[in-house]
Amino acid sequence: ADRLKMGLAKTRDKLGKSLASVFGGGKIDDDLYDELETVLLTADMGVDATQHLLKDVRERVSLKGLKDPNELKGALKDSLVELIQPLQIPLNIDGHKPFILMVAGVNGAGKTTSIGKLAKYFQSQGKSVLLAAGDTFRAAAREQLVVWGERNGVHVIAQESGDAAAVAFDAVNAAKARGIDVVIVDTAGRLPTQLHLMEEIKKVKRVVQKADPTGPHEIMLVLDANTGQNALAQTKSFDDALGLTGLVLTKLDGTAKGGVIAAIAKNRPVPLRFIGVGETIDDLRPFVAKDYIDALFE
Ligand code: GDP
Q1: Which of 23-37, 117-131, 180-194, 211-225 has the lowest mean pLDDT?
Q2: For 126-180, what is each residue's pLDDT tens digit?
Q3: pLDDT of residue 33
Q4: Is residue 79 pLDDT above 70, yes or no?
Q5: pLDDT for res 1
Q6: Distance CA 271, CA 218 (A)
Q7: What is the CB neighbour count within 10 angstroms for residue 96?
Q8: Residue 298's pLDDT is what?
Q9: Is 227 in the pocket of ligand 1 (CB under 6 A)?
Q10: Largest Cα–Cα distance of the chain, in whole Å?
Q11: What is the pLDDT of residue 174?
Q12: What distance in angstroms lies between residue 224's CA and the mean position of ligand 1's atoms?
């Protein structure tokens, strides 16, 4: 929990300071709610989540007959936890062998880093992992993955054909043949606006389905928290194209935009499997709504 707190320092500092000034004195009135609205919007919660939270906090205040602005903090915490709680659905890889996890995201979101952390996370649970090097656009990225795999006991399927779908197909079949527990299918970074690349990733999904009609079992989007509201836009686009089942939100340690989780919860509640709060393996952690809000408000 301390690491989480450390990781969320930036968002907490900003949010905490602004909230302290909102809740610091005076009385609970419309001016105070106006200030609160500004604070929530500034933390990148977005218009819809902000309106929802304001309404919910007002209801809690009148229900409990709160008079002291200081008590509002607790009401806001409760509202926030309730709003983002539905995103807390841990990734469960039992039930499929191999479990096929497809990973998507824009360049620089933290996809490669997160895949490395995920591979080690699964290994720490005694699972064998095979990685499909589906970023066929960057030869260097492919080479890097192979070397990384050798060093870390992760099987890597790579080929020079340049066809990401073919790599995924081979990887799923290899995993079946070798009795591997988890296949992670990496894909090249792409923007939702690059329509030909979105078609390509849809094809990867279709071809995975050919290799295993029950899969892919998880289609995960990696998002950079620094992009704020754009992370919500990316979630919508990738979800529309692929049918997302999970999210990873990285770089929460480097940003004050941690409120975007509320926006995602309100507008496109795809389960938030993991959050990244730093660059080491321990810094990718399963998302726990209450811990997250506690760490923001400490
Ligand atoms: P990709 O292009 O999506 O594969 O992105 P990378 O995995 O290469 O990550 C881009 C940069 O972000 C690298 O410098 C990573 O070390 C860094 N990064 C990824 N996740 C996190 C995180 O949770 N916290 C921090 N501080 N940096 C991260």
Answers
A1: 23-37
A2: 999 999 988 777 778 788 888 889 888 999 998 877 789 999 999 999 999 999 9
A3: 94
A4: yes
A5: 62
A6: 11
A7: 18
A8: 72
A9: no
A10: 68
A11: 96
A12: 8
Q: Which two tokens stand for residue 98?
A: 């191999």
CA distance 168 to 134: 7
Smallest Cα–Cα separation from 101: which of 247, 262, 210?
247
Global pTM reads 0.95
DSSP letters for 207-257: HHHHH-TT--SEEEEEEEGGGTHHHHHHHHHHHHHH---EEEEE-GGG-S-
Q: With beta carbons less than 8 A apart as the criterion, state whether 132 and 212 touch.
A: no
- Choose the residue to mutate in 222, 279, 285 for probing ligand 1, maximizing ligand atoms within 8 Å of C-beta: 279
Q: What is the mean pLDDT of residues 204-224?
A: 97
Is there an atom of ligand 1 within 6 Å of 134 CB?
Answer: no
Contact 239, 211 (CB under 8 A): no
Residue 115 to residues 129, 154, 182, Cα–Cα distance (Å): 11, 11, 12
Distance CA 168, CA 135 (A): 10
Annotated binding site for GTP: 105-112, 186-190, 250-253
CA 176 – ligand 1 centroid, Å: 31
- Per the model's pLDDT, the better-predicted residue between 162 and 243 turns out to be 243
Instruction: Give me Rg for the CA atoms of the chain.
Output: 21
Residue 271 CB partners (closer than 8 Å, separation 6+) = 87, 88, 89, 91, 245, 246, 247
